[in-house]
Amino acid sequence: MTGWGEIEYTAIRELRGPLAVVEGVAGIGWDEFVRITLDSGEERHGLVLEVDRGLAVVQVLEDTAGMDPAGVRMAFAGGPLRIPVGSGWLGRMCNGRGEPVDGGPPVFGSVTAAVGGNPINPVRREPPAEPVLTGVGAVDALTTLVRGQKLPVFSIAGLPHLELAAQIAAQSTAAGEAFSVVFAGMGLTHADASFVRDALEERSAAGELVLLLNTADDPVIERILTPRIALTVAEHLAFDAGRHVLVVMTDMTSYAEALREVSAARGEIPARRAYPGYLYSDLASLYERCGRIRGRPGSVTVLPVLTMPAGDITHPVPDLTGYITEGQIVLSRETHALGVYPPVDALSSLSRLMRKGAGPGRTRPDHLDVAAQMLAALARARQVRELADLVGQTALSPTDRRYLDFDEAFLRRFVHQRRDELRTLDETLEKAWQVLLDLPRSQLDMLPGALLDTHGAERG
Hints:
The protein has 460 residues and is of the alpha/beta class. The protein has helices spanning 137-142, 161-171, 190-199, 201-205, 220-239, 252-265, 279-287, 316-324, 333-337, 354-357, 367-391, 398-415, 425-436, 449-454, and strands at 8-9, 12-16, 19-22, 32-38, 43-52, 55-60, 72-80, 82-85, 92-95, 111-114, 125-126, 131-132, 145-146, 153-155, 179-188, 209-215, 244-250, 292-293, 299-307, 327-330, 350-351.
């Protein structure tokens, strides 16, 4: 017998990658937590992936390296993995399994919660509303993040998506209300993990951050667990402690590749690009844990970051993510090559819930009008640039040449900011006005005349 009061099983049929197959089991269910004891006394942990006719497939969180099938004992907990939750997580840095790596004691909580989470009753869901201000001008003005929203960042290897994710995690606020950030890093290099720790040190010291870091040389199974632990912690901070919580998860492509590796080890029939056929529902089980609940304080907002292999937006991970989420922030290799940070492609980016979180009573009365005019002018500037490539700039009209100047000013004077610069929304919108007023007043037809007069738009 074990300390859990459960039978220990020792008939290990085989060890295959991160998986162990156990024979002769009875009364075991999916997702049960498993304690694994080696002959040496070392303890490992696992989760039940599959049960069929007396066989259980267990994924070992610490991997099966060094395990001897003849010297392994497995005890099943009788329920899914649970972790302590509460404010004790704030200010802590842990690995992808939630074990402290900051030299402090284990994280304790007065209650525990299942890592798999519980679905939110759709009837109890409140629509996302009110903004989460990130301090990043291009995001706040043109693709406003709304409390309870899931808004991914689509990037390409080599672009500063990690820097942007860390900056948003370090700077975001909820208009003075209780706010916390849960940062889940998956498959990070040690250099990237060190960068994230340094970038978020101040927020961590203020007791507003939970940091979960899974590095590239950590067990692959841990990578699958990391975002689930992050969301479980966030849900309690939001719906029980009344905080607005931003969950930043990077890189979701690393997560999907871990899922693919485990699927291959299980011998499952692969689907598109060798990813498992359940990739869509698995991603949805993470992204859909955000939101607001009627009658409960707080909110969970999710910002997943993913790299598109070879820049292919039709790759399964960004493709399926796009179906589940409410918009996207797209980073551009061309903008990055111009030395602009963050290299946001504004015309490819979209926040479908922006109107729920911006405008009168939420940000500024002129916010939505300015954003609409900015994007319309940007679209016209792109057409003019394509025309200039065909006929040359000398053949353009004076107005068209103003649009080329606007395009340059948009990137240099509006989008570009320092990587440690916290830009207020008022500063962001004033910069937007300064750039827009470079155009003739006749071209600013999406802005009310009274607003144009207030900001001194030229006549004619």
